[in-house]
Amino acid sequence: MPLVDRLSALQNILSETPGIRLRALSWDAAGNRLQLDIAAVSSRALEQFTQRAQPRFRVRPGDMITKPDGIEGQLTLEENDG
Q1: Is-above-0.85 flag for pTM?
Q2: 20-43 confidence digits (pLDDT tens)
């Protein structure tokens, strides 16, 4: 899937998920995946984002830090072949 299509899908997921803020985004062309640095107001918001992303992407969580105002951390989104 072209990168622009992935970004469009990601934008739709973000706009459908209140409480999630994209802090940084990188594209790993060699690994064919998007790497996100996100902030979530709660674990529930993070769970909702993951559920919305899963039909389109394999979601791989990275390091997550709980802070007084929510959760910050990394997620990797890989194209979902099935």
Answers
A1: yes
A2: 999 999 999 999 999 999 999 999
Task: For residues 54 and 59, give the distance between their C-alpha atoms in angstroms, rounded to a whole number.
Answer: 6
Q: Which residue ranges make up each domain of the chain?
A: 3-79
Identity of the amino acid at 58: R
Q: Are 75 and 59 contacting, i.e. CB atoms less than 8 angstroms apart?
A: yes
Superfamily of domain 3-79: General secretion pathway protein M, EpsM (3.30.1360.100)
Which tens digit of pLDDT belongs to each residue from 1-23?
A: 789 999 999 999 999 999 999 99
**The token pair that represents 69 in the structure block:** 């105002």
